[in-house]
Amino acid sequence: MQKQNVVVVGGGLSGLFAVNKLAKNKNLNITLIEGSPSCGGLLNCFQSESGVYYDQGTHFASKTGVDSIDDILFDETDFENNWYQFSYLNSGNFAFNKWTFDTQVVDIRNLPDCEYHKALGQLISAETITTSDTFSEYAKSHLGEYLYHELFKPTVYKLYGDDVDLLSIQPRVGYFGLNRVVALDDITTESLKKIPKYDEKLAYSSSKYYSEKITTQECYLYPKDKKGIQFWIDKMHERAVKNGVNILTSTEIKKLDVSKKKVTSIITSDGKIYSSDLVIWTVPPSILLKLSNIECSFSYKPLLRTANLFHYSFDKPLFNCKNHYVWNWDKNYRSFRLTFYNNFTGCTAHDSRVTVEVLSSPEESQRISSEEILKELRDMEIIGEEHHLTDESKQVIHSTFPVPDKKLQKLSNEIRGKVEAELENVIIAGRHSGSVWLQSDVIKAINHEIEARIF
């Protein structure tokens, strides 16, 4: 029986899972093509000049609850020695100049009494306009005028820029969980959440309390290896190679040959040709159309934010010794998410590491200094004057977070539809598919597509 040729484009988590899944079928020749020098994308670690490793933002692995998938994602041979395990992620947040250590969701009880009662009254009485097509109208009807002006709108400006057009952005994308707030004690909240309109806007006061209420057993993981989350990528890469997958890195695609609505071969910039019976595409699908020489009239260009990652090591434990990571919702700070590595590795002696994430435009990025971010850490009382730096780096990654413009989802749907109509043997997979976002959902969707086509 002649083997089928499958080409996977993109060597991130989606691509690596795909090739390891495909490798279970011994009647396939599998090739993975990655343009960067190594697989993994943002799940690769960053190494400072002095040799200290940091993740590129907050990254955890998680089990999907589907044994056949988790067996591919994780090597169970020496599981206990390789992974820290958590039943929930201990996230916190900083808002209204106060800390909440038990959840990433804003706790409006931290507001002064007068403002709290005003915000609570508006929140409870607000009737969400689910059909609204504008961000402002939806947010005001969902959370009330006060929280819209003091929390929701400032956060959108902080994440996407002061010049973002509020009329053009999508009204309901969650905005990193900001669609709910903690407003009452958990007993009262649990009673109110039985009513759908309150369930959509109220949150429990702790991640632990929430994890005990959900029916599915969640499992979050973080590697014990010094390279952090990259350990996961390295292991999946090793297994793929061991299973006979041909992995090409630092390889650019020059052209796709198309015949009778099928990609028959992929030609790389070095002139090599890879035959394809099936293509799994995990990078932006607009590139696929261009390389296939398929005419399209899409003129909209998504707006992409620059991620500024400030990596620090200190000679003493951080004052926050509880949270794995925190969100900074306070409008007076540039930082929006912070990762406290020592709080999930269990090591709190020396070299306490933290990564601070700031979103900006490419032009703004040049003006954000390490001194400014260190001052924020002191102002939030994460560190004190007695903390001394043992390592620091600034990492700039352009074109990361897309501004959630309404045209973006429309464009994504149009491109996906064009690919499905013009290329019958291509699977658009991963977050670039536009249909899934959460890590476990992305992996499950890829697994489903591969089983439908191959197994």
Features:
FAD/NAD(P)-binding domain; alpha/beta; 455 residues; 16 helices; globular
Q: Would you mind describing this structure in some detail?
A:
The protein is α/β, with parallel strands linked by helices and 455 residues long. Strand 12 (262-268) and strand 13 (273-275) form a beta hairpin. Helices cover 32% and strands 22% of the residues. The mean pLDDT is 93.
Write the layout of secondary structure elements.
Elements (H helix, E strand, L loop, with lengths): L3 E6 L3 H10 L5 E6 L11 E3 L5 E3 L5 E2 L4 H7 L5 H4 E4 L4 E5 L2 E3 L12 H13 L9 H9 L1 H16 L25 H7 L3 H4 L7 H7 L6 E4 L6 H13 L3 E3 L4 E7 L2 E7 L4 E3 L2 E4 L3 H7 L14 E9 L10 E4 L8 E4 L1 H4 L6 E9 L1 H4 L4 H10 L9 E9 L8 H17 L3 E3 L10 H15 L2
Parallel strand pairs: 1-2, 1-14, 2-10, 7-16, 14-20
Antiparallel strand pairs: 3-4, 5-9, 6-9, 7-8, 11-12, 12-13, 15-18, 15-19, 16-17, 17-18
CATH topological fold name of the domain at 4-44 and 229-297 and 405-453: FAD/NAD(P)-binding domain
CATH superfamily of the domain at 4-44 and 229-297 and 405-453: FAD/NAD(P)-binding domain
Strand order of the largest sheet: 8-7-16-17-18-15-19
Beta-strand content:
15-25%
Report, as a whole number of angstroms, the end-to-end distance.
Answer: 16 Å
**Radius of gyration (Å):** 23 Å
Q: Tell me the number of helical segments per DSSP (H or I, 4 or more residues long).
A: 16
Identify low-pLDDT runs. Answer: none
Q: State the helical fraction.
A: 25-40%
CATH architecture grouping of the domain at 4-44 and 229-297 and 405-453: 3-Layer(bba) Sandwich
Category from helices, strands and their pairing? alpha/beta
> What's the total number of strands?
20
CATH top level label of the domain at 4-44 and 229-297 and 405-453: Alpha Beta
Shape label = globular
Question: Overall pLDDT, averaged?
Answer: 93
How would a crystallographer describe the biggest sheet? Answer: 7 strands, mixed
